[in-house]
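Hi team,

As requested, here is the filled-out complex form for the CDI run. I kept the field names the same as last time so the parser does not choke. Let me know if anything looks off before we queue the next batch.

— J.
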Amino acid sequence: MFATGIGYDVHCLVEGRPLVLGGVTFDYPLGLEGHSDADVLCHAIADAILGAAGEPDIGHLFPNTDESIRGISSLEILRRVRAVLDERGHVLNTIDSTLIAEAPKIGPHLMAMKENIAGALGLPPGHVGIKATTNEKLGFLGRGEGIAAMAVAAIERQ
Ligand SMILES: Nc1ccn([C@@H]2O[C@H](COP(=O)(O)O)[C@@H](O)[C@H]2O)c(=O)n1
Ligand SMILES: C[C@@]1(CO)OP(=O)(O)OP(=O)(O)OC[C@H]1O
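And here is what came back:
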């Protein structure tokens, strides 16, 4: 059966952390806070895939109380999510996603992010959509206090 899932995540921007989005480390004075590398894009994608597969969300698989995954790369989380699909016999088809970030500019890094995510999920880069938008200066995202991401995933489910 064909199944879709959605994912959403948001993280706070703070000083003293690297900014990692789609596995790319940005040259930016602030980074996202989290137990992992806080790659909000990968987290939204992970939840979209898990949702499509009928699995519990990322926090169940990777609890923020687990010291063994402190600082884990979210590309590694995507690899492990893909492994769950493989175990169940599901086939990942496509991902689409949107980053909501007032800054920095995502455009110049889109291809590298796509390749990272596609590589982690075992998909052709053309099957991974990434778009970016500002929040038009509205609210906490518009003030640049955080970055959010949303994603959808399509899978062929056993
Ligand atoms: N962090 C961002 C935000 C946006 N972009 C690109 O700019 C275009 C215009 O954004 P608006 O929010 O003004 O619609 C958008 O379509 C993206 O291509 C970006 O690269 N990085
Ligand atoms: C992967 C985890 C692990 O702690 O990452 P965090 O950086 O805590 O990010 P969040 O999106 O708040 O929740 C997902 C967590 O499971």
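Two things worth flagging: The pocket of CDI (ligand 2) is lined by residues 9, 34-36, 38, 43, 58-59, 62, 64, 69, 77 (CB under 6 Å). The beta strands are 2-15, 19-21, 24-26, 30-32, 91-100, 131-133, 146-156.

Thanks,
J.
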